[in-house]
Write a structure and sequence with these properties.
GO terms for molecular function: alpha-1,4-glucan glucosyltransferase (ADP-glucose donor) activity; alpha-1,4-glucan glucosyltransferase (UDP-glucose donor) activity. This protein is α/β, with parallel strands linked by helices. The protein has 17 helices and 17 strands. The protein folds into two domains: 256 residues, Glycogen Phosphorylase B (Rossmann fold, 3-Layer(aba) Sandwich), CATH 3.40.50.2000; 190 residues, 3-Layer(aba) Sandwich (Rossmann fold), CATH 3.40.50.2000.
Length: 471
């Protein structure tokens, strides 16, 4: 079976969030199962492209409105990611260093989807399945069925994976002239509330849609930024498949990005040594339990709660802690956190920005990871944390509820769950976690329990392949 994954992110080519981690791992695990899986992404002027060998395999052009665009398809020659990677380059559109935040983003993603379909017309063997990831490529299921030039693709099955239903790619109808010519009787499939909505179009037109956890699928029926009714209407073709993690890359036993490797057998010593190394690097006190936050400073991640949580814990809370925050986003939030770091220099350190190597060091060093998310379709950070013997303290939403069992509520629980996105609740959960795991015996037990869990991509990849076969 030939499957193409279409996405604007893929680790390590281009990463902003969990979308990149999924697309960078899932195809490799599918190939282990005998599926001919590949990835198609936009071209980015980034280090990964400079460091690896790419060869041009196709060229073409098409009109986007009145503008003629030329494209080039580049293939990474050595399959360094464990699967074929193809990049579509369009001068002036898909040749930039950043992934998002350009003023013509809608035109970029339309061009990417159009170029992919134009290139696929020349393929000798067409894929059985095209798996589209998030709204940036949400027009593809519609265009494969109703664009005049691509009617030959109507029988190819399409799967649409919802990584985050809050972002839907809305665009005014004046952008409609940029699309490939389509059957105008079908315009309603593109429309939602007077706008072109790529995510809505994908849900209407795909053969099946998946979400990145079963819990998030249920949440979309109640909270999907205006698409709740559509998700309920199309629920018969919806499937919740929890994300996995790449346990070759996220593995403290062989991780080259951490100072001290460790396994289940020496987890206590390994964690202690890594905490000492990080504490020395960041000026923290290694004697105290280390609480970490890693992520975007966005309301959906509950990051706006951090100043109150951190301030409450450090200003005479019930437990003694060191805290490290790694992330970026809201500048006002960064300012508040920096002020707290200046106020508590020995017990709070912050790093603003994304740093892959530092993230690994934090997972290896931290005793607890805080995830106070308002929305968390699956969450990968809690899975990485548990792989490294770091105890997750999470709000019970989406995939967090599905993957973290509460220590006090479940016989073999391995995390701490709180219900409301509220600073006081988060503080109580952190204090509960630290209080329950004060003695080394309890901490060793929970670390070994969570490190023994299997959150690899093998199970998830198997479920995707089963769905493809059903289609």
């Amino acid at each position: 079976m030939q499957v193409v994954h279409l996405s604007v992110e893929c680790f390590p080519l281009a990463k902003v969030g969990g979308l990149a981690d999924v697309v960078g791992a899932l195809p490799r695990y599918q190939r282990k199962m005998g599926v001919d899986a590949s990835v198609v992404c936009p071209y980015y002027d980034r280090p990964f492209v400079e460091k690896n060998q790419f060869v041009s395999i196709a060229e073409g052009s098409f009109f986007q409105g009145a503008e003629e665009l030329s494209y080039q398809v580049l293939k990474e020659e050595n399959d360094v990611l464990g699967f074929p990677l193809f990049l579509i380059r369009i001068p002036g559109k898909l040749d930039r260093p950043e992934i998002y935040c350009y003023p013509d983003e809608a035109e970029q993603w339309i061009a990417f989807q159009h170029a992919f379909l134009d290139w696929m017309k020349g393929w000798e063997k067409k894929p059985e399945v095209v798996n589209c990831h998030d709204h940036h490529v949400g027009l593809v299921p519609f265009l494969m069925k109703y664009a005049v030039a691509y009617q030959e693709f109507a029988s190819i099955k399409t799967v649409f994976t919802v990584h985050n239903g809050q972002y839907q790619g809305w665009m005014d109808w004046n952008k409609g002239v940029l699309l490939p010519t389509f059957d105008t009787w079908k315009w309603g499939l593109l429309d939602w509330d007077g706008l072109i909505n790529p995510m809505a179009a994908a849900i209407k037109c795909c053969d099946a849609f998946t979400t990145v956890s079963q819990g998030y699928l249920q949440e979309l029926y109640q909270n999907a930024n205006g698409l709740e009714g559509l998700f309920r209407q199309e629920s018969a073709k919806g499937f919740g498949i929890v994300n996995g993690i790449d346990d070759q890359y996220w593995n403290p036993g062989v991780d080259t990005l951490i100072p001290h490797n460790y396994t289940l057998k020496n987890v206590m010593t390994g964690k202690k040594n890594n905490k000492r190394a990080l504490a020395k690097k960041m000026g923290l006190d290694a004697r105290y339990p280390l609480l970490a936050f890693i992520g975007r400073f966005a309301a959906e991640k509950g990051a706006d709660l951090l100043p109150d949580v951190v301030g409450g814990l450090l200003s005479g809370g019930a437990v003694k802690l060191s805290i490290f925050v790694l992330g970026s986003g809201d500048e006002h939030l960064q300012t508040r956190l920096q002020e707290l770091a200046d106020q508590y220099p020995k017990t709070l350190a912050v790093f603003f920005g994304y740093n892959e190597a530092l993230a690994h060091e934090v997972y290896a060093a931290a005793d607890y990871l805080l995830m106070p998310s308002r929305v968390e379709p699956c969450g990968l950070n809690q899975l990485y944390a548990m792989k490294y013997g770091t105890v997750p303290v999470v709000r019970g939403t989406g995939g967090l509820r599905e993957t973290v069992l509460d220590y006090d509520q479940e016989e073999k629980g391995y995390g701490f769950v709180f219900e409301e996105a509220d600073a006081a609740e988060a503080i109580r959960a952190i204090e509960r976690a630290v209080g329950a795991l004060q003695d080394p015996v309890s901490m060793r037990e929970i670390r070994k329990r969570e490190m023994s869990l299997d959150f690899s991509w093998d199970k998830s990849a198997e479920q995707y392949v089963k769905l493809y076969n059903q289609l």
